[in-house]
Amino acid sequence: MNLLQTRWEELADIKRVLAKRDWFPGTSGNLAIKVDHDPCSFLVTASGKDKTIETNEDFLLVNALGKPVNDTHLKPSAETLLHVEVFTKTNAGCSLHVHTVDNNVISELYGDDGSITFKGQEIIKAYGLWEEDAEYTIPIIYNHADIPTLASEFSKFVKKDAGAVLIRNHGITAWGRDALEAKKYLEASEFLFSYHLKLLSLKALKVTI
Ligand SMILES: CSC[C@@H](O)[C@@H](O)C(=O)COP(=O)(O)O
Ligand SMILES: [Zn+2]
């Protein structure tokens, strides 16, 4: 198998797993995996497709500008420019974007604060933070409809080879040095969102009864 096929299979595996979790409602979400560093090229999901279905047209190869490398009728994801920021500013190898109810609610609850910080949770180790009092902060940005504007706002928080950014009432983009790390950041974040919302609801219930 050549490098392109290997990366295709890796991304297809992640897409299959995330689809099983219902993390692509209404055709939302997009995934990207780096193929080459110099010049930069990456596979990205084709735009507007039902990402729960597997086809041989799920991904296309794009360059550092997010433009298709080969002649194709496929359109790169509408949010390809965000993945461009990840791959051109860091050594990340994979970038994942999903819309979930939990990430949308968290982004709305804490959107005015501009970030949410988690602490005192074992799963924070998934971000590579092993100290007992470790904290992990996820920035929350405004959901600009203009994608170049959204990408440039997003870019302000793309500083490390692995990370996560919430887009208010839209979704999350998480990335890592490889597919495993990007998935780990994404899953840890969704775990923390779900835990936090459950805890808030139960605390509110306790107050009212
Ligand atoms: C129906 S989801 C809205 C889309 O604009 C977008 O946010 C999204 O995540 C999927 O867009 P896509 O172009 O398929 O990658
Ligand atoms: Zn989106």
UniProtKB/TrEMBL annotation:
<dbReference type="GO" id="GO:0005737">
    <property type="term" value="C:cytoplasm"/>
</dbReference>
<keyword id="KW-0028">Amino-acid biosynthesis</keyword>
<comment type="function">
    <text>Catalyzes the dehydration of methylthioribulose-1-phosphate (MTRu-1-P) into 2,3-diketo-5-methylthiopentyl-1-phosphate (DK-MTP-1-P).</text>
</comment>
<keyword id="KW-0479">Metal-binding</keyword>
<protein>
    <recommendedName>
        <fullName>Methylthioribulose-1-phosphate dehydratase</fullName>
        <ecNumber>4.2.1.109</ecNumber>
    </recommendedName>
</protein>
<keyword id="KW-0862">Zinc</keyword>
<dbReference type="InterPro" id="IPR036409">
    <property type="entry name" value="Aldolase_II/adducin_N_sf"/>
</dbReference>
<comment type="similarity">
    <text>Belongs to the aldolase class II family. MtnB subfamily.</text>
</comment>
<feature type="binding site">
    <location>
        <position position="97"/>
    </location>
    <ligand>
        <name>Zn(2+)</name>
    </ligand>
</feature>
<dbReference type="InterPro" id="IPR017714">
    <property type="entry name" value="MethylthioRu-1-P_deHdtase_MtnB"/>
</dbReference>
<dbReference type="GO" id="GO:0046570">
    <property type="term" value="F:methylthioribulose 1-phosphate dehydratase activity"/>
</dbReference>
<dbReference type="Pfam" id="PF00596">
    <property type="entry name" value="Aldolase_II"/>
</dbReference>
<keyword id="KW-0486">Methionine biosynthesis</keyword>
<dbReference type="GO" id="GO:0008270">
    <property type="term" value="F:zinc ion binding"/>
</dbReference>
<feature type="binding site">
    <location>
        <position position="99"/>
    </location>
    <ligand>
        <name>Zn(2+)</name>
    </ligand>
</feature>
<keyword id="KW-0456">Lyase</keyword>
<dbReference type="GO" id="GO:0019509">
    <property type="term" value="P:L-methionine salvage from methylthioadenosine"/>
</dbReference>
<dbReference type="InterPro" id="IPR001303">
    <property type="entry name" value="Aldolase_II/adducin_N"/>
</dbReference>
<comment type="subunit">
    <text>Homotetramer.</text>
</comment>
<feature type="domain" description="Class II aldolase/adducin N-terminal">
    <location>
        <begin position="9"/>
        <end position="197"/>
    </location>
</feature>
<comment type="pathway">
    <text>Amino-acid biosynthesis; L-methionine biosynthesis via salvage pathway; L-methionine from S-methyl-5-thio-alpha-D-ribose 1-phosphate: step 2/6.</text>
</comment>
